[in-house]
Amino acid sequence: MTQATAPEQFEDRLVWAFLHTFLRYGLIHSAVDGPEGQWFVQIGPDHQIHHLTDTEDAFGFVLEILEIIDGAQGGEQ
What we know:
The protein is an alpha+beta fold and 77 residues long. It has one domain (13-74). It is built from two helices and three strands. The protein has a three-stranded antiparallel beta sheet. The longest helix is centred in the last third of the chain and has 18 residues, at 55-72.
């Protein structure tokens, strides 16, 4: 994925930061920011592409990934 410019709105910048972090550590395969707060995310190369239609969808997706990470770590602190 090519590096995109960070979005202007704080909420979109937060999602952008999480998705780029997930990419860096191999937790997702690809993420592309689209127009008007949309995102296209793929967990693995053979998985479907998730179309996140707005910032609320993207936040939900990020939270699901964080819950999976937390579950894999056994909820340890």
